[in-house]
Amino acid sequence: MNATEIAFLSATETARAIKNKEFSPLDAVQAYLERIDRLDTRLAAYITVISEEALGNAQQATDLIQQGKDPGVLTGVPIAVKDQYWTKGILTTNGSNIYKDFIPSEDSTVIRRLKDAGSILLGKLNLSELAMGGTQNPPWGIPANPWNFDCTPGESSSGSGVALAAHLCAASMGEDTGGSGRGPASYCGVVGLRPTFTRVSRFGMTHMCWFMDAAAPMTKTVEDCAVMLGVIAGYDEKDPYTSHKPVPDYTVNMRNGVKGLRVGLIKELHQTSDMHPDVRAAIESSLETFSKLGAEIKEVSIPLAELAGAIFVGVADTEGAGARDEILRNQPGDLDQASRTRLQSAALVPAKVYNRAAKARVLLRRQLMKALEEVDILVSPTSPYPAPKHTDLTAKFENAEDVRKRFFFRRAYTGCYSLTALPAISIPGGFTADGLPIGLQLGAGPFAEETLFRAAYSYEQATTWHTRVAPEILNA
Amino acid sequence: MPVDKTTVSKLAHLVGINITDDELDEVTSRFTSLMQELDRLKDLDLGNIIPATVFPEDGEV
Questions:
Q1: Minimal Cα distance from A318: which residue of B?
Q2: pTM above the 0.95 mark?
Q3: Fewer Cβ atoms within 10 A, N terminus or C terminus of chain A?
Q4: Is the ipTM beyond the 0.90 threshold?
């Protein structure tokens, strides 16, 4: 197998091949490092690449395998993580000049667990400043969507989406507060999971909104995502909000199919006239696919879904402004202009308005839980439109209606699950006529990730979207 | 209810943050839009709801 073939494998395929000694961890790491060196100047997926450390760890893993040892389920698999996770001794910038010199003294729990499973860290991935989105002048370059370099790869886990779509790593960790993992997954044609809120530790992850931030595995395939979640999930004494619920093997029931599963289209997120026609067609086609696979399809109503974007911003941005109060007061000039104005506007929200949004969040949860009595899986696009151009995303807002359309509207789709602590996954759901990926978002009840993976895997295997490679990457 | 730049500037001063003159328009636009969107929540019956930050594992609130 040549280096390109190695780099195009999924994480589980890589782990299997390494276990079967088809190639070594050193071969895998070298394959990815060569691609990063050749392609990333244009793509800006990485902030820090730890070549020497990665090669050293890969050699160690190679030696262990030669000795007949098997350190873990991800042994030798080259991964990269959003530069929001603490990595011991390695620069962790949070995409901001504020943290340009921050070197953590310990790993985050997620990183430690991935290392314990045998994975090899290649480096830290680019992100929007402080994981917020909308950064106008990212200090470490503007990540380019591999499907169209003029388009955004999505935010805030931009580098994760790019690195996966361009095969610059085998698997990645993003983070998802309001859709920051699922959004880039959608725009880059890869998989992104937001687990149930208390499923995975957030220790060692810089916070935006402490009760909505979630560690988000982002991967090339659904199976990879299931494996990653199995590695990182579980109680952590360093994050007291993590659940004591046992962590299952998420791959065990994944191949059971969807016969008899009840799948519900969220009416309010589908009826809008602002949805891109190709996205609408893709969602409707996905329901046909599920139906052919034996699922029962219905429509459900979540009346507050349309306001989820506003509720999310009202709660999360206000929390974020509180968390960044010292920065806003003492060093606002070190923030990107977009981050600064966003936090400043959120800092002015009156307490009673925040309180109203916090209550609306509970009402939204009740509506979603009621809908989940009728169905097992909720369906919507991850975003109502494909990846916009960079210039459209970062253009200054012209008026209040412009803010509503460009800022609140798309956040309703991912915000529904962020606000309500429920798990949701974005998987490749098709392509627009212009060749841009469309994300299909599936949601489920608390701790129902196994059901999510079952539905996602069935759909993935019944389609070929996940096998496509961006033309510029294929020819690179 | 639209909020003008003067009001935003005064609010920012009370909160202790400084908004530069050339960014006041943008902050005003963002803040106005946020308040307009959140104003729609006034129509909801939220009287008997207690806000939650973390939801219980068994699902119900």
A1: B34
A2: yes
A3: N
A4: yes
